[in-house]
């Protein structure tokens, strides 16, 4: 018998990959499923971005292998973007590493820092990939609970009680997915202090900071943050370019040099035209975000109405492209999700896929046209 690697026993197929197979089967059976669970932008990228990639296709060398570090103009665009929007100074020569989507950065960072048996602090609730990558590499996931009562901020008293001798990384994600909570400057300061005192690299995963958020933040705004922190970002959510797979990692050169050793074994550089398009996106002014968020605000208002129809509560001030809904007392996430799917033909995300702290919650996406959300409301 062919035996697969033991590491595969530590993970399951990604929830949405598996569940969407079931959804597609229901659709094939004629069920009118509306998918309001996935955060995949349905809107078009900026027109100027599409023209930039089209115009690049005849450039000399456009179809050759590209540099692992990306085009100089792309790195410069990232640097300018951070200066303009976060007031963070980034050296484009050695403090930016382009990625084929920020999700691959989770693997690259983990491979660069973790040995078997090392421990990683992971938010609960939080993005499932943090723990699955840790498990695949033979690390140990140490979950730190986030609570609604404290607006989903880390409990530093609880963190200080941990044995941190084997902890190498701490994953942070603000604006937070799935709850939409924003970090405070005080939270970021405490995270940097915690990382420095315990020699733990803090990684902020930051793809949602321009969606329904008037005050975008970066952990790198904190004085001394580069000494111990890295930040992941992407164009996926901010510019409706999820399928392009363009992300970036920012931090001090000593960190990025080691992570680059991993990356150079995994790909042969990002396609030239995609980098040209992403460069144009990063050069857009704030009018783009204003127009984008006007659409999301209208959708969010309707999803709030949907949540109320289900007897849920929610945070009107949350950021990002989801609405995190607390279910009525006594209702479980999976129970409600299955009822919606099989009886109303509506697919949403159960809070439990984001960790045990997600029990009693469900998540709706704003990546759905208004008419579809109105149809969901009508079905409820």
Entry keywords:
380 residues; alpha/beta; seven-stranded mixed sheet; three-stranded antiparallel sheet
Which strand order spans the largest sheet, edge to edge or round the barrel?
Answer: 2-8-7-6-5-3-4
Main sheet makeup? 7 strands, mixed
Number of strands: 12
Taking the alpha carbons of the first and last residues, their distance comes to 50 Å
Q: How many DSSP H or I helices? A: 12
> Measured on Cα atoms, how large is the radius of gyration?
21 Å
Shape: globular
Mean pLDDT over all positions:
92
Structural class of the helix and strand makeup?
alpha/beta
Provide the β-strand percentage band.
5-15%
Unreliable spans are none
Task: Report on the architecture of this protein.
The structure is a single chain. The relative contact order is 0.17. Helix content is 38%, strand content 14%. It starts with 14 loop residues before the first helix and ends with a helix. Helix 2 (47-56) packs antiparallel against helix 9 and helix 4 (102-113) packs parallel to helix 5. It is built from twelve helices and twelve strands. The strands form three sheets. Strands 2-8-7-6-5-3-4 form a seven-stranded mixed sheet, with helices on both faces. It has 380 residues and is an alpha/beta fold.
In short:
The chain has 380 residues and is α/β, with parallel strands linked by helices.
What's the arrangement of secondary structure elements?
Blueprint: H1 15-28, E1 34-35, H2 47-56, H3 72-86, E2 96-99, H4 102-113, E3 119-124, H5 128-136, E4 140-145, H6 156-160, E5 167-172, H7 185-198, E6 201-205, E7 229-234, E8 247-250, H8 253-263, H9 272-282, H10 287-309, E9 322-326, H11 333-344, E10 346-347, E11 349-350, E12 361-365, H12 370-379
Parallel strand pairs: 1-10, 3-4, 3-5, 5-6, 6-7
Antiparallel strand pairs: 2-8, 7-8, 9-12, 11-12
Helix pairs in contact: 2-9, 3-9, 4-5, 4-8, 10-12
